[in-house]
């Protein structure tokens, strides 16, 4: 799959917004990556679905709310469990989704919110403490975020490695973890070293058109059962191409140096980078497929609002947006209002100038006709004088 750098549609304005976000906030793949997924989603939504998303989100779109659920984690720490589907070490071909206490795991949560929005009883309930009752808009935001999490293979990491956090990786002279390599290090490396690509409008469904059309047709037939197949894909990729080095075919844990560190070379980095962006695009397309289906069948029946307010960071973001807007307005000269006799003199002056310009234009417009008329009168007079002679 190739990734172009041309801007598509409203990509320029979205790019400027993301540049601003980059300057104002700390970075993490789960934020920048989710925003990229959300941008791809918006490019694939039907026109009516775009309007409904805007209505439900209070004017925001899928990119704006793509990381909303991670803010909820700070207010309700237990919700962090909803973003992960821990796998047993010995299982790789399919995702293990049954070992999930109180339905607090990624796939059960996706089925729960999907069932809430479609009105289907999928046999999954998640009890929120403190009497919190999530709104339709909250469920949409959660679904956007959690479907995006499926793109990050280490959200299906094994329990014994703590989702890859127990595997130390040396990447460009910096020690990190396998989880963080996929969660932020690759993304931030691209943003820093290849900004022309990251801000180049690559987040469009046309970049994954084949997969989008295939998944769209399958979802029309299989609906929520297809969600489990998508989970299987991520779990299988996690085993075959993340925990296992796709270049050497060996398990990463077999390639640790004497200090227990895996050295990520540039060749493997390039492979993982391509895979990551491909997965982000596919994830954005799949979010759009699910939302298009839900919003088409529930048009006008879903309600806006939120049951989870005062999230950390939201006030700062709104304040920053307000400051940016005020700053732009400050660049616009403000007119000073003149009143009383000075205003009369100013209006008289402006009126005189306008009248003068009008008379000059009229004279210029009428000039050729008057000259022709004078010439005709002169010839007429000359002719009359000749006859008398």
TrEMBL record:
Residues spanning the membrane: 344-366
- What single Pfam family name could you report for this chain, choosing any that match? S1-P1_nuclease
Gene3D superfamilies, sorted: P1 Nuclease
Arranged from A to Z, the UniProt key words for this protein are: Disulfide bond, Endonuclease, Glycoprotein, Hydrolase, Membrane, Metal-binding, Nuclease, Signal, Transmembrane, Transmembrane helix
Output the InterPro entries linked to this UniProt entry: PLipase_C/P1_nuclease_dom_sf, S1/P1nuclease
A GO molecular function held by the record: endonuclease activity
Spell out the residue ranges making up region: Disordered: 306-327
Which branch of life, at top level? Eukaryota
The identity of this protein, by name, is Endonuclease 4 (AtENDO4) (Deoxyribonuclease ENDO4) (Single-stranded-nucleate endonuclease ENDO4)
Q: Which organism is it from?
A: Durusdinium trenchii
